[in-house]
Amino acid sequence: MRRAIYPGSFDPVTNGHLDVIERARKLFDEVIVAVAHNDEKQPLFSLKERLSLLRETAGKIDDVRIADFNGLLVEFAKAEKAGAVIRGLRAVSDFEFEFQMALMNRKLDALVETIFLMPKEEYTYLSSRIVKEIARLGGDVSGFVPACVANALSRRFK
Ligand code: ADP
């Protein structure tokens, strides 16, 4: 069983995340989308809301499981018997942080491999942060996120 973990904040899930999940699914038997508790960040959506939006979207894809985790990613990967961590790379600007994280995770556990996937070009400029900003300013985000996320955003910024 080849299992991978796709960790992140998913605040909220976007079409870019879903594209990465679909790609990862082609490489692994099971993909666990793992929402980090991450108390340092001030999310727009609570952990429960982020999980629920993921369950309504990514959770509908075969062999994709939605989970949450606290603490070290490598420990969670070990507990789930996952040999790989998936991360998305959009632009050079993502690289430095991702490179540091990948090598640090390798130091912490040499058995967990980080794999970077590039989304479809049209999603390379997409981030949860920019989607929240557009929604906050009253813009239409329906082309960037699934319908349930667009609805949740418009309710939040009503
Ligand atoms: P984090 O807080 O860990 O950066 P995110 O939810 O913002 O969490 O992102 C999780 C992962 O998905 C990261 O590897 C990020 O680079 C990637 N990602 C986010 N948006 C996109 C996108 N539009 N295309 C490809 N990868 C993306």
Per-chain topology:
Elements lengths: L2 E6 L6 H13 L2 E7 L10 H10 L7 E6 L3 H7 L4 E5 L3 H17 L4 E5 L10 H9 L10 H10 L2
Parallel strand pairs: 1-2, 1-4, 2-3, 4-5
Adenosine-5'-diphosphate binds next to helix 1 and strand 4.
Structure description:
It is a single chain. The chain has 158 residues and is of the alpha/beta class. It has one domain: Rossmann fold (3-Layer(aba) Sandwich). It is built from 6 helices and 5 strands, in the order E-H-E-H-E-H-E-H-E-H-H. It has a 5-stranded parallel β-sheet, sandwiched between helices. The longest helix has 17 residues, at 92-108.
Question: What would you say about this model in short?
Answer:
The protein has helices at 15-27, 47-56, 73-79, 92-108, 128-136, 147-156, and strands spanning 3-8, 30-36, 64-69, 84-88, 113-117. By secondary structure, the chain is an alpha/beta fold.
* Pattern of helices and strands: EHEHEHEHEHH
Distance between the termini: 45 Å
**Overall body shape:** globular
Total number of strands: 5
The CATH class label is: Alpha Beta
Short descriptors:
single chain; 158 residues; alpha/beta; Rossmann fold; five-stranded parallel sheet; 6 helices; 42% helix; 18% strand; globular; binds adenosine-5'-diphosphate
